[in-house]
Amino acid sequence: MIEFKHVNKTYSKKGQSIDALKDVSFQVNKGDIYGVIGYSGAGKSTLIRLVNQLETTTSGDVIVDGENINQYSKSELRRARKHIGMIFQHFNLLETKTVFNNVAIPLYLIGTPKEEIKERVHAMLEFVGIGDKAKQYPKELSGGQKQRVAIARALITRPKILLCDEATSALDPATTEQILSLLKKVNNEFDITILIITHEMSVIQQICDKVAVMENGELIEHGSVKQVFSQP
Ligand code: ADP
Ligand code: ADP
């Protein structure tokens, strides 16, 4: 579903160049919950931004759902992004909009009929466990509830891939566990491939099937969670 082939990414800043990714190759299969773990600065955000085409590679290819997204035009990109949902550490909700409208926005943008929006948003809010919060505003919600809104918004267009960028890093351990089991339910019921980047080993151990370990821009190991973290 996602394939990196010899990907290099170099940023230049004030005449200096930083190699954020060095010859990174790996593959995420359809239906995987795939974790990428590494310390700050390892290159994890760069990797996820390449999947979502917020950055382009310096060399090498990123193939998403069978298509090389490096060669996309702007309109093809807009179409492709609809198949990718994303959630973040700080939720990125619109504070002036209700929960309902936060989740409905992606559907408004693609011209979905009003009645259908209503049905789908309410069903999705039920699914993520906040069916009673439609009329509330983000500031009235707990961190875990806000992340549920963000998950609902990411899924409402029925993407094939969900990208999670440190999505539980702002949550306490108990809430983290609840959000991770919700992600597991999403993976099971909707057949969505999930790519998680995190610096927390516990996240990888709780829900990932496979893991890649990053260090200084290099992918130093990858495989099943059991393989990679079993003691020799
Ligand atoms: P992580 O998400 O693992 O913390 P990043 O992908 O954010 O890692 O960063 C990898 C390296 O690339 C770091 O050295 C970081 O400083 C650098 N970097 C990231 N984004 C930029 C940018 N826009 N311009 C210059 N350097 C960047
Ligand atoms: P329906 O096909 O009638 O919408 P489903 O049982 O397939 O019902 O889905 C139940 C809920 O899950 C609905 O809110 C639907 O919008 C949502 N849903 C279904 N498939 C996906 C998907 N791939 N990604 C995100 N949400 C989905």
TrEMBL record:
<protein>
    <submittedName>
        <fullName>D-methionine transport system ATP-binding protein</fullName>
    </submittedName>
</protein>
<keyword id="KW-0472">Membrane</keyword>
<keyword id="KW-0067">ATP-binding</keyword>
<dbReference type="GO" id="GO:0006865">
    <property type="term" value="P:amino acid transport"/>
</dbReference>
<keyword id="KW-1003">Cell membrane</keyword>
<feature type="domain" description="ABC transporter">
    <location>
        <begin position="2"/>
        <end position="232"/>
    </location>
</feature>
<keyword id="KW-0813">Transport</keyword>
<comment type="similarity">
    <text>Belongs to the ABC transporter superfamily.</text>
</comment>
<keyword id="KW-0547">Nucleotide-binding</keyword>
<dbReference type="GO" id="GO:0005886">
    <property type="term" value="C:plasma membrane"/>
</dbReference>
<dbReference type="GO" id="GO:0016887">
    <property type="term" value="F:ATP hydrolysis activity"/>
</dbReference>
<keyword id="KW-0029">Amino-acid transport</keyword>
<dbReference type="GO" id="GO:0005524">
    <property type="term" value="F:ATP binding"/>
</dbReference>
<keyword id="KW-1278">Translocase</keyword>
